[in-house]
Predict the 3D structure of the following.
Amino acid sequence: MELKTERLILRPWKESDAQSLYEYAKDPDVGPIAGWPPHKSVEESLNVIRDVFNGAECYAICEKENNKAIGAIELKLNGQTDKEDECELGYWLGKPFWGRGYMPEAAKELIRHGFEDLKMSVIWCGYYDGNNKSKRVQEKVGFAYHHTCQEVPVPYMKFEFDKVFRQMMEEHQLDTVILLGHINPDGDAAGSVMGIAHYIHVVYPQYQVHPYLENTLDKGPKKMVAQDQVFDPFLLPVEERYGVVVCDTAILKRLAGREIYEKAEASIVIDHHASNEGYGDVNCTRVSEACAENVYEILDWNRWKKKLSEEKGVHPDAADYVYMGILHDTGGFARVGKATFHAAAELLSLGVDHDYVMQTMHSDTLHDLQKRGYLFSKVQRAVDNQVAFVIVDREMIEKEGISYEDIHSVSEFLRDCEDVKMGFTMYEEEPGRFRCSFRSDGKWINVNELLAPFGGGGHAGSAGVRKRTEDLNEFLEMILHRIEEMKK
Ligand SMILES: [Mn+2]
């Protein structure tokens, strides 16, 4: 079977394609992001043609002018559903051919073939979070989002920060890098930003490093930043030419220092939010418990340790900060995956003192607890008592002296109550503007999806939204109504 499009031929693979396959499949930017390792030899490519590309509906993608195989596309029959009229679409394309629209062109034809000639009733397709090129192809050819599988290992997608960072600095001939995080930074944003800043400072002393964080940083992490002997991240960097590394920020709207980002020569984005927009020149987004967990995974700690031993040990250092990020976003290791403990254990062996970092989790005074007691006395229930929430309006804020810091952790406390499934808070930060924080177990209600229609987002179990409204009750009713609709 051979299929044709305007510019392409889709034809079965031949053993004589091995050389060409190897040429494109050895590129580490091609396979790992789709779940397979780069090819190491022409022989390996030949074996793949024999053993893997032998499916009835597996095609080599070729340009019409030379019929040379530059990528692969396949309808995997009986793709994981056991139904004969359902199949999975898979594809990849050699890097020199990216950006020409070849993939949507080939995919459209194969989808047509699947439905019209093979009489399929369902064709599905997947991508790993962060593989935005693949996501865009799927959107272009008409796939609609169905669901996300959690905790799927991505065995070959090893993102090496050092490689990408050096490339950015060298290609653009930069000697300065600025690190940015999200507005109202938390322990994870601060830990990721400061961790990478210290890492670069130690491993690449030839570069100027400026971490930048908003001064509204949570109190606990701020204690550690105050002890920093190298950086003051609360000063706005003034630089001419620089690259940026952005951490823990799903959408540009939430970036602190947006103008700095816009004026950068190049950018690297490191994030762990499923809702990441895929912005930046290089975007490394992997859904995990904490951005700092991803930071741990992409840095070369052996290299850091070696360089570090040449200096005297100062704390906090890169490992302390990364540990702090993990500690905060997991709520003190309350929400973890296997990788979280692995990272924590490795960081401890790199010299992190758990008790030292743990101090950043404790920043309440007795007065703070009393204010929290007041807030709990104002909690209301809804949705058969399964949802608990508290609304703090301007009057309460002024009369009781409640800051956002005071209410920050309340939604989490409510969610963790034995007889509550979901907690949220609405805080009137400016007259008519409410900062809202939602927490659930991520299953009963996925709060990321709950808030999507209102322009908010985050994670399945933890998300937020800012809402400007003259009629808070109407907004509250909409939220409660949507909870009723979504609850499982
Ligand atoms: Mn985070």
About this structure: The chain has a mean pLDDT of 92. The first helix runs from residue 18 to 25. The longest strand covers residues 69-77.
